[in-house]
């Protein structure tokens, strides 16, 4: 078995000479076996061995006894132990999370704290081949996709699993005559789903094929390899970039890739419990018209001119300021410094998309304000008038920007939308004597 573990370590590049390794040590046969195997290999591999044990305080005296066993074992093997106690039951009650989730979080918190104290270390867990087969079946009955059915990864970040290619029976056989180990009575409680698979389902499957676990793990490996290949396609297809799904690119993808793109997006957007309904909802929004929106629990997504992204509801900003005929003034509004001045027609004026020039006498009083429902414009270079909303749709101005855009208005007519469009109304002519010049400048503190 030692040779099998060495091959696993080498094949998956788990360890290098000089590495520090923290064994997640519960006291059970699997973790004790891992500790002994790595201790046996430490000189050959050139590694330093440590251990970490968390007493969850769930099993009372039995749990305390297991931790005492771990302490004595590490003392006997001259291995430094990182030990911690925490009241998981109390924590789950206060934080309203499950015991299993809380316990796992606290274990890895201990492992990572220990690694930090050592200036960096690998964390070795004792998952074995049987665990991998159980995980596959557990994910299968819960409707997991290919990623979940790929089983337990050999390496994830700084976590390594050197025993994934060996069976539990091989570990126990290896330990016989070397040391004892602790057995957690809850491992036989078939009210837990994993235990039911272990004690009821897998034995039945072995009646069909005596290498059931090995074959299940082999299938998981094939799925994992396929998933890695598909993952590369997803990452390079360009359908999800900068936190947004490109609807057109999504449409052209095979269903398998399309589904994975959506799952990637949902995860980045912080969606919880990603399922078929949420994936279908994203497709519905992506393949719908601009403005289509769906609520996915606590997440709202919207199609904004072919880009699907999370929608964040915000109160529209409002601003209004009347400017009297002939008034010269600087107005600070929604990120702009707006300068209004009245000048003689002989003065040379620069013409750009952030400045508008009107006949001051024809214009009279006007208003600097945010848009309102029913606003319209007589766009320069176009015949007739057009609703401002339609104009914004034509130029694909995002909905959220429309609500707080600043305009020059007279009644319900919009005369100028800086950077977007000017009106044909109140334009200077040969008869004009005075010019009303209105310029918008983005304030420097709002440029970022």
What features would you describe in this structure?
With 448 residues, this protein is an alpha+beta fold. It contains 16 helices and 22 strands. Strands 12, 16, 17, 18, 19, 20 and 21 form a seven-stranded mixed beta sheet that branches. The protein has a six-stranded mixed beta sheet with strand order 3-2-1-4-6-5, with helices on both faces. Strand 1, helix 2 and strand 2 form a beta-alpha-beta unit. The longest helix has 25 residues, at 212-236.
Summary, kept brief:
Helices cover 41% and strands 22% of the residues. It contains 16 helices and 22 strands.
By secondary-structure content and strand pairing, the structural class works out as alpha+beta
Our Rg estimate from Cα atoms comes to 34 Å
Overall 3D shape: elongated
Beta fraction: 15-25%
Largest sheet: 7 strands, mixed
Quick one: how many beta strands? 22
List the defining traits of the structure above.
alpha+beta; 448 residues; 7-stranded mixed sheet
Provide the fold topology:
Elements: H1 2-11, E1 20-24, H2 29-45, E2 48-55, H3 61-77, E3 80-85, H4 88-95, H5 99-117, E4 122-124, H6 129-141, H7 146-149, E5 155-156, E6 159-160, H8 168-175, H9 193-208, H10 212-236, E7 240-241, E8 244-246, H11 247-251, H12 255-268, H13 276-286, E9 293-296, E10 299-304, E11 307-310, E12 320-323, E13 329-333, E14 336-344, E15 355-359, H14 360-363, E16 366-370, E17 376-377, E18 386-387, H15 388-394, H16 399-402, E19 406-410, E20 413-417, E21 421-422, E22 434-442
Parallel strand pairs: 1-2, 1-4, 2-3, 4-6, 17-20
Antiparallel strand pairs: 5-6, 7-8, 8-11, 9-10, 10-11, 12-16, 13-14, 14-22, 15-22, 16-19, 17-18, 19-20, 20-21
């Amino acid at each position: 078995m030692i040779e099998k573990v060495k091959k696993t370590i080498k094949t998956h590049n788990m360890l290098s000479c000089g590495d520090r390794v923290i064994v997640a040590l519960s006291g059970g046969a699997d973790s004790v076996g891992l500790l002994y195997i790595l201790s046996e290999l430490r000189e050959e591999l050139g590694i330093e061995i440590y251990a970490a044990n968390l007493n969850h305080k769930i099993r009372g005296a039995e749990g305390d006894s297991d931790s005492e066993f771990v302490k004595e074992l590490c003392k006997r093997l001259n291995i430094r132990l990182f030990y911690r106690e925490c009241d998981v039951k109390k924590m789950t009650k206060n934080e309203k999370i499950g015991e299993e989730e809380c316990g796992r979080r606290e274990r890895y918190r201990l492992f990572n704290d220990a690694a930090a104290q050592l200036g960096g270390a690998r964390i070795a867990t004792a998952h074995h081949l049987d665990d991998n087969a159980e995980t596959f079946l557990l994910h299968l009955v819960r409707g997991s996709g290919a990623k979940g059915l790929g089983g337990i990864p050999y390496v994830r970040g700084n976590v390594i699993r050197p025993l994934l290619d060996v069976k539990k029976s091989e570990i126990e056989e290896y330990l016989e005559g070397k040391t004892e180990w602790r057995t957690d009575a809850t491992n036989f409680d078939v009210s837990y789903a994993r235990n039911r698979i272990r004690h009821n389902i897998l034995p039945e499957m072995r009646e069909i094929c005596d290498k059931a676990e090995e074959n299940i793990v082999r299938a998981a490996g094939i799925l994992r390899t396929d998933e890695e290949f598909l993952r590369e396609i997803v990452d390079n297809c360009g359908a999800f970039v900068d936190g947004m799904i490109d609807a057109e690119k999504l449409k052209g993808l095979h269903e398998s890739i399309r589904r994975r793109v959506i799952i990637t997006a949902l995860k980045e957007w912080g969606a919880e419990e990603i399922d078929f309904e949420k994936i279908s909802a994203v497709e519905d929004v992506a393949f719908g018209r601009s403005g289509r929106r769906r609520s996915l629990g606590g997440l709202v997504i919207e199609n904004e001119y072919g880009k699907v992204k999370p929608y964040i509801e915000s109160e529209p900003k409002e601003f209004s300021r009347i400017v009297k005929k002939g008034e010269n003034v600087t107005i600070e509004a929604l990120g702009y410094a707006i300068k209004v001045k009245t000048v003689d027609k002989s003065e040379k004026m620069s013409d750009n998309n952030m400045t508008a020039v009107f006949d001051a006498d024809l214009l009279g009083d006007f208003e600097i304000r945010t848009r309102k429902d029913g606003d319209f414009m007589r766009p320069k270079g176009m015949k007739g008038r057009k609703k401002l909303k339609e104009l914004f749709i034509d130029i694909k101005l995002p909905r959220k920007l429309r609500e707080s855009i600043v305009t020059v208005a007279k009644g319900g007519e919009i005369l100028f939308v800086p950077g977007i469009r000017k009106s044909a109304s109140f334009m200077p002519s040969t008869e004009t004597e005075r010019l009303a010049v209105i310029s918008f400048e983005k304030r420097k503190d709002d440029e970022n």
